[in-house]
Design goal:
- The complex is a heterodimer of chains A (257) and B (290).
- Chain A contains 14 helices and no strands.
- In chain A, helix 4 packs across helix 11 and helix 5 packs across helix 8.
- Chain A has a single domain, classed as MetI-like (MetI-like fold).
- Chain A is mainly α.
- The longest helix of chain A is centred in the C-terminal third of the chain and has 33 residues.
- In chain A, 72% of the residues lie in helices and 0% in strands.
- Chain B is mostly helical and 290 residues long.
- Chain B has one domain: MetI-like fold, CATH 1.10.3720.10.
- Helices cover 73% and strands 1% of the residues of chain B.
- Chain B contains 13 helices and 2 strands; from the N terminus they run ααββααααααααααα.
- A two-stranded antiparallel sheet of chain B has the order 1-2.
- Chain B starts with a helix and ends in a 12-residue tail after the last helix.
- The chains are: A mainly alpha (257), B mainly alpha (290).
- Chains A and B meet through helix 1, helix 4, helix 5, helix 6 and helix 8 of A and helix 1, helix 2, helix 4, helix 5 and helix 6 of B.
Chain lengths: 257, 290
Amino acid sequence: MIVLRIATGLFAAFVALPLLWLVYAAFLPAEALLMADLTTLGFTLQNFRDVVGTGLFSSMAVSVVASGTTVLAQLAFGLAAAYAIRNGARVTALVLVLLALPSELLLVPLYRLLQTLLLIDTLGALIVPFLASPLVVFLLLQALRRVAWEVVEAARIDGASEAVILTRVVTPILRPELTAAAVLAFAAHWNLVLFPRVTTTEDLWTVQVFLSNLLRTRPFEWGLLGAAALLASAPILVLYVVFEKRILSTFEAGFRT
Amino acid sequence: MLRSQRHARWLALPATAVFVLFGVVPLLTVIRYAGWRWSGVSDPTPVGFDNMVRLFGDGELWRSLGTTAAFAGLTIPIFLVLSLMVASAIYKTRLERFVKALLFAPGLVTVGGSAIAWYLLYNPDFGVVRELTGWSLPWTTQPFAALVYVVAFTLWQQTGYGVLVVSAALRGIPTEVKEAARLDGASEPGVFRFVTLPLLRPTLTFLTIIATVLSLQSYTAVYLLTGGGPFGSTRVLGFYLYETAFERFELGYGAAITLFVLVVTLLVAVAQALALRDRGVGRGAMAGDA
């Protein structure tokens, strides 16, 4: 048991290291990095000033708009679909199959489809294909299965329409799961790399395309890379720290037997 | 009442329409595109089965299949063992919540930022780990080290999911079952081996299949970390597909490779499901229909 705990501790340290480094490297002065002397602890904000003008902020704006819009749609469509499945709609198999199919695999046919729909190189390319998410439907469905169904049936007997039941009865009960699903879905969309790279050009680069490009074009400017990486990670890190408990419990509950 | 329930089923329509248009339609149309010569810009030319024939003689494709198998073969067993180990070690301890929160974080934080952090830490020429310890993983020059690097990053990113899934399953095991074994004189390793592990079986099966399917198809980590190199040693199937279609602009042949990846994934997943079922897996890892 002791051995297991030590091994777990080591693995946790291995996981923590890049996360801590992400925060730390952003504030290191260029000399400390160039001299490879990390013992003289320096602190500078110069790296953040260097980031201005690189295009990071406009790519973050594209990402926030695209991921934000996408998540709102995914929650609305996902809740409606989960509720429909709970009422007997038979699309569970479709959801599960698509859950195991990453968008980066279907890039070629998706590219053609977006061409046909005239969406290539528009904001729509980043949003329309992701208006519904199998993961969101799955998590909300698992959450709905734990809801005492008498509540819904009572509302029906009282003559409430399905729209009213969904917005006034189900939504408040599922608020924690909706929050968690929103953060998970936001992160999933925010972290797409190859799909936005292929379907858009520089004006619409998302933050991931920008970062991967920065790493390729300026690999020796550590401070700049560190600051850009930290700034780009900040929104997700904040969301995660605030909602961590709900996210973990929703994800775990989704996979409980 | 029944009628309104039937009305409620129509609410699946918007999501289903999106799933069909951007999930099912690409899955079907890719078959047609595999018969094209097409650069992505000009109009496609139908070439019949040329692309399919080309698949069989394409040494680079079979090599990347081998790389993918090596990647999956390294990643999945370590992923399963780590998930099981960490989830058991932290189960009902004070650190459980903290460790879970920590391990889940890399899956969510900005992946491009993570790639940068890894690059600055583990670069074999001037990375921090090398500066501090003198040791480094030569992933820029040595093929196997590069594969290990991609595997390590993938484990770093994904193990949190596995831990959460195993942890959820551990909680589903009634304490009475374990207590009964202890009363019968079973040691702690014995309880784990003969009570906990068999009861976790459906969960581990589920994790194995999901991990396999995703490791055969995904390649974002390769794109961000090594770009397939050095010497094509980390060019997994997905990345070969990407290079062919969007760097060499042979989208028709890219479609053929997509089909190839889909068929390989399906065959492996079915074989795995059958093999794991034959060994007596009872129920699925996911709850059945309500």
